[in-house]
Amino acid sequence: MSNQIQLVQFHNQQISILNYNNKPYVAIKPICENIGLDWEAQRQRIKRNEILNSTAFMIKVVAKDGKNRDVLCLPLGYLNGWLAGIELSRVNPEIKPILKQYQLECFDVLYNHFMPKVAQQFPNTISPEQQQQIQQAVNERVYRTGERHQAVYSKFHQQFKIPRYQDLPASKFNEAIEWLGGVSMRNFKSINIDNLKRQYNYLATIQEYYYKVFDLYNDALSDFLNKNSPALHYSFSTALNKIQVNIGLSLNFIRSEIDIGSKSKIINFAADIDYLN
């Protein structure tokens, strides 16, 4: 069975899309031609990418001349992953504006074209608060596994057969959180800013204040690593120690240039450092 191509207008150009197994797919070659990208180079790039290659399909379609054609397509949910991977700095200057335009707007235009059908398919989707929890669970999975955000979202879309994570049915929310690995950040040690502010007037120097904050941050990060990735604990602790030493040296240099020690006792940190609120 062949599929009929639909054409969607995008800034005086046309994008070829089709509905395959009740999912929107985008023909890649016409987009390459619209932008001015080398089609064969992009086809090879998709083939080399594990995620894109696993989702790409050769779909038989009916062309304008009435003949059947095999067209390489990506699911709409993976379009941004492909476009975002094309570096603006590595393309010819004359095509940069249109490439950027596609990267910023193309997905939204196509998604809005299919919005009525998506709304019918997923009438009861997750709330904004649940969307934030999905984002948090994705972030934590990235931290645990080292995967790229785009790769996790692509797998997520494929797992739950949705074009965007916002379209996740509310009934699938708990399953989605479990699939991502859960949300554990709420269990982390937190820095009590109010308690910290009470100590400002007892800190003799800016460096002491810095080390106090740093120690609390280090404890919170250590708690996170111990719970989620013990193997990374040593590497991160070493990096943090280097940061601590370097900033300590910087503060010592400043102190040697200006008489900051005698002045720091009268600084009202609670009033001056509002960004801690």
Which features would summarize this protein structure in a list?
alpha+beta, Mlu1-box Binding Protein, DNA-binding Domain, 6-stranded mixed sheet, 13 helices, 277 residues
What does this 3D model show about the protein?
- There is one protein chain.
- This protein has 277 residues and is an alpha+beta fold.
- It has three domains: 3-121, Roll (Mlu1-box Binding Protein, DNA-binding Domain), CATH 3.10.260; 128-186, no CATH class; 193-276, no CATH class.
- 57% of the residues lie in helices and 12% in strands.
- It has helices at 28-35, 39-48, 50-55, 79-84, 96-121, 128-145, 149-160, 173-180, 193-198, 206-228, 233-257, 260-264, 269-272; strands spanning 3-4, 6-10, 13-20, 23-27, 57-62, 68-75.
- A six-stranded mixed sheet has the order 1-5-6-4-3-2.
- Strand 5 and strand 6 (68-75) form a beta hairpin.
- The longest helix has 26 residues, at 96-121.
- The protein is globular and about 65 Å long.
